[in-house]
User: Fold these one by one.
Assistant:
Number 1:
Amino acid sequence: MSDLRPSEEILNAFVDGEFSPEDRLSALKSIAANEGLSREVCDLYQLKELVNMAYRADTLPESGGRRLLHGGPPRGWVPALAAGVGALALVLVAVMEFTREQGHDPIMLAENAQPAAPLAPGFAAETSDARQILFHVTDTDVREAEDLFDDIEYMFETAWLYGQELEVQLVVHGTAMDLVRADLAPFPNRIRDLVHMYPNLRVTACGQSRARHERAEGRLIEFLPWVEEVESGVREAAKRQAEGWTYIRV
Amino acid sequence: MATWLAQRRLRQEVCDMRPQLYRTAYAWCHDAALADDLVQEAMMKALTRLKTLQDEAALKAWVFRIMTNCYRDWGRRQKDTVDVDEMELPCDDCPEKQTERTRVVQDVRRAMTQLSDDHRQVVALVDLEGFAYAEVSEVLDVPIGTVMSRLSRARAQLRKLLLEQAAPESPTLKLVRSRNE
């Protein structure tokens, strides 16, 4: 190194900190002893700084990611594609996750996912936009419920990435009510965090199921504070379906 | 639960990378909308394939590699229609923008646009994101020697271009079409 002029690649590697401390020290000595090399190394450092300066965050055009979050119109090819397939993908991901992880028959699930109200001619495109999803939770399995909340979080993150609006409602019904009971809920904080993090997520529980359980147990039952009570879980599910929400039974 | 927590943390880390990804994508293509698209697509792919990540420590390089592939795919799709090397920078000649600092910024960006894609990518990854050569080799899927030679040539060309831009403008000849042609 001291006798031979190092190659351009080696000088660049030196400037980029690719040398071990020992080699760096040795290289420094060689560079310091040669004015031409010193100038060249200095130029390389300066070039690195210039490139860095040219792309500092405050000099870049505003990212559309922020713009999309504020509801601006999407540009370019990804939002264009995403607008068409994103919403469908969200539903498909959710459906596939559930069928895979819960072993449900995909065909039965698909049958369950039909909207109850017939579509008026000419309105198929609007109503198939499927960004409103209702999960009808009737199973009390804790593990599956955990997976459900993971998937819901993932769906919201995905929607966020595409700058799309997404509404999700859980209707907890029958024995699944244990999941949202103040005295029995297996993960109350998880539900709280999700509800607080995603304003478009509503966790609702069936009032009739609560009354039935209260009669059976002979005591009052409270839901978690982040859970809204609806008069009837079945009626709520039917109402949402009629409004065009995608229905998924869990 | 532990797996879920790890996945959640990694997802957050991917989301936190958005500004870095955008900066690099912009340095590659110099088009804000395209840079956004590349970042969105890369993040989307990273989030959906997160469970396939073998080494959590290599998350950043992995995500940048995904974005590199997105950029390559875009290049293949656009090959016959848009040449990224010929893209013009917005507001290049706006007088109100010609402060010393913005002039330097514009000069460097203009020089960057004149590099080849391969050279521009390696400069952005090393100088903007501080990737080690071994990581760049992973991200771009090329041998480390190629990274070194590309970087060396890219910087030499950058320096030459910047010097040319800094030099006083030489008179240019205009081609005047002969009436007899």
Note: Residues 144-166 of chain B form the longest helix (23 residues).
Number 2:
Amino acid sequence: MSLEEKFEKLDDSKDKEQWLSRRANWIRLSAMTMTHHAKLGHTGGDLSSADILATLYLGRILNLNPEEPRWEQRDRFVMSKGHCSAAFYSTLASRGFFSVEQLKTFMDPLSMLNGHPDRNKLPGVEANTGPLGHGLPIAVGMALAARMRNETWRVFVLVGDGELQEGSNWEAAMCAQQYDLDNLIVIVDRNRIQQGDFTESTIRMEPLVDRWTAFGFAVKELDGHDHLALYQAFSSVPLEKGKPSCFIARTIKGRGVSFAENKPAWHHGVPTREQLEIAQRELGVEAAW
Amino acid sequence: MVSPVILETGESQEPQRFDCRDAYAKALEQMAEQDARVCVVINDSLSSAKMKDFKAKYPSRFVNVGIAEQNMVGVGNGLANGGMIPYLCGASCFLTARAMEQVKVDLAYSKANVRICGMSSGMAYGQLGPTHHSIEDIAWTRILPNLTVIVPADDVETAAVMRYSLHHDGPIFIRISRIPVRRALGEDYEFRLGRAVKLREGTDITIITNGVLVVRALDAALLLEEQGKSVRVLNMSTIKPIDEEAILEAARTTRGVVTAEEGLAAGGLGGAVAEVLALRHPAPMRILGLQDVFAPTGSAEFLLEHFNLTATGMRDAALDLIGERK
């Protein structure tokens, strides 16, 4: 039975939550094992986004077929914060787009698993991201394509909060409003930390809810580590008919690992062997792979 | 100066000139009728990109992102992902320069099936000045892996390139002028990617050019013929992938190559030709274009003359190349 089939069989929301929580922690440990292996990566954001990714992919929010990754009617997911590729790749492998075994090659010479995702190398990747502010315009185009073709696919895009300092996001937001793209769902990983410092000490992002609201989105703020809240929120899109949706997911950078939580240095910190062992104990996962 | 074509034919009237944008717009409408995947994205460029009729006929396949080129190129990638064939139509200066990282990542690196129709390229915006000139676009676009770069010579070739583009796999940058230009190609012309078009055979010297300068190169050939020189003229409309064999043949069978382009001499068509020759068959060259300067104020026609991008300019460069300039 596939993982997502297992999820479907869980009746009780408590069970679903526990199951997603375990899967998310597996993604966390897998990502940390990858960044440890590569001695490169963006561990902090991997850990803050793991619950969102687990809910979307393993909670069966996204209508996908790993057997046929380019199935035309699929929902699109754009990982705009492409630097959190370790968590993203772990999620795709977990969902069955490629083998978990492949995760071991993260950033190795000639690996399919680039530091940042490449759709022409890896099944399940929709967009080549890495430079920030690219994902949302691409997602708007995908949503427009669904309109033009009378298709019902939805487009989910995960953006970082610091990423929103790139002006291209707001160009895209205006376009989404103009075209009433209620098949577009923006999720902001609001972990409040960017590479060098806290967002609010760099370029203030607040009032973030008001900003998205002013740009014509139906906005909901929620706990980005509460799987049930995420699951219910993503299951009820669009938040408002005729409007694009925006979820501000309040998260903690480095979530789940005591030494990394809420520390700017862990934006691109990578764990030592000892730290990886501590993380494993704290996350309660036997081993990633 | 009276056109040499007129001198030759004895016609009393100036030949008709065409705006390539009309040909591109008409071709797009025809393509949209044939293929439901064809769609257009503009950046407020409804009139400058001549898209009023397309919008009226195909409103559901028409997107105006407003004055927002970064979003425009990203939207193109997303539309292609969703199975559409988007044509991004706007002023070349903004589409390339303003959105260069999106062109690199979202189109070239992603191998997205998107077509950029860069309007009013080169110095076509004349008096509006260097902010609106797009003299850098060829150098910028041709270095990007996976990105095909085409500069049509006239309205006939523009329409042919548009028709070709529908079936091309991967991103294309098509540079479309707004300077009215005489027709250089016959109406039965068929575009072939990566193949230079030999518009005139010659044995003394080869002029390689493209875009609105092609007819000027034909005029230069006539002027040189008056001086007993036999000139080959190659329309190198595809800059990438470039026709290496045509360039090598020119180097082998004529005494040298003059290139001319409506843009910076560095990194453009001349640079592309020089790269081929330097590595495979060194030959004397002259590269006509803007030599590391922005253009002064003046009409497009004035600026082309100012930078010797004229029949006489090409003639003089050719004579200089073979040591016969008086």
Note: The domain at 3-283 of chain A is CATH 3.40.50.970 (Rossmann fold).
